Automatic annotation (TrEMBL), chain A:
InterPro entries: ACP, ACP-like_sf, PP-bd_ACP
Entry PTM: 4'-phosphopantetheine is transferred from CoA to a specific serine of apo-ACP by acpS.
Record's keyword terms, sorted: Cytoplasm, Fatty acid biosynthesis, Fatty acid metabolism, Lipid biosynthesis, Lipid metabolism, Phosphopantetheine, Phosphoprotein
Primary residence: cytoplasm
Similarity comment: Belongs to the acyl carrier protein (ACP) family.
Modified-residue entries (O-(pantetheine 4'-phosphoryl)serine), positions: S40
Entry protein name: Acyl carrier protein
Carrier domain boundaries: 5-80
Job description of the protein: Carrier of the growing fatty acid chain in fatty acid biosynthesis.
Gene assigned in the entry: acpP
Amino acid sequence: MATKDEVLEGLAEIVNEIAGIPTEDVELDKSFTDDLDVDSLSMVEVVVAAEERFDVKIPDDEVKNLKTVGDAVNYILTNA
Amino acid sequence: MSNTPQIRPVTGAQYSRIHGVGGYRPVRVIPNAEVLTWIESSDEWIRTRSGIAERRWAGPEESVAEMSVQAAGKAIAQAGIDPARIGGVIVATVSHLKQTPAVATEIAERLGCGTAPAFDISAACAGFGYGLGLADGMVRGGSAEYVLVIGVERLSDLTDTSDRSTAFIFGDGAGAAIVGPSDTPGIGKVVWGSDGSQKDVISQTEAWDTAFAKQDAINGAGEETRWPALRMEGQTVFRWAVWEMAKVAQQALDAAGITADQLGAFIPHQANMRITDAMIKALKLPESVPVARDIAETGNTSAASIPLAMERMLESGEARSGDLALIIGFGAGLVYAAAVVTLP
């Protein structure tokens, strides 16, 4: 079971690879769209990569609720 | 029971291949700047979300039949056959707004295909692949010597120009291919299917009868009525189109016994450049394989996009006759069709 820090670190690497955002900018309170400039399609790529990395299912209906990095980290911690 | 009459067996060609391909692009170019007069957006936003810089929209004279005849004429010329030898005309379209009769019969008649069976199919952006699968079966099954497969759309007629999420995507055009007998396999197993559980993620906003009933109810009351248009759930479609379709594409490669590094072209349905880019990653396609990127100047032309992109790659020299191409179409239904083919 991954810790909160490990999930954040993993997510930051994914966001870096897909959207080119420096990993240190990927913080819990950052909004994917407003702060990190991750658009809706990149968000799907992030979600699919996160599903694979953390062995978790993130349905389409859930993606719209993941507004901040913290939302995604919490969802992964709760559902992985 | 030895006197039971036996039906004479039907024999067809051992193999089939594409003998010719042709396209028709409408004259009128719609650059992003024109789209921006309809929706609140920016050229950069449209380009980064879709890869589209411009699209072609058909004028009044560029009907579904007319564009089809033009594209088919080029395909027939490349194949070098007499149109009278065409034993089947399959037209894949979702935007021929006159439902009956099938537009295929008019096209067959205008091209001089005699009494060839002619019919339309509705398989959206997988329409060309569906048509190719049918044509391959007809040629090898002995019901036709040559089959003309056309993908044609006037999606501008079904575009809601006030919808920010789709107004910039669609384009018009026609692409055609002649499928006929071959000494060697030229069309691999068509891996095709559907998923009706996702029938609503890309669809016409409402049926024509519903639209007309609303019009009758309003009957001049001043309320705006909307012609049905196409809409889609972008994120859901994106996820399905990239990761599910990468699996289907791989199945088509495996079925053909071909590895990705042996391909001379990858020609996915031109849905969105982002889908193409993500699919390349998901498929782990080698960088050496040229990829169709016709969408930049053509938009998403649904059933027409694969043959149009194929023609462009051959004309530009990006791909050559005899090369192997992986094609994959996917769209409203949801439906999909993929195959490895030898380029004409």
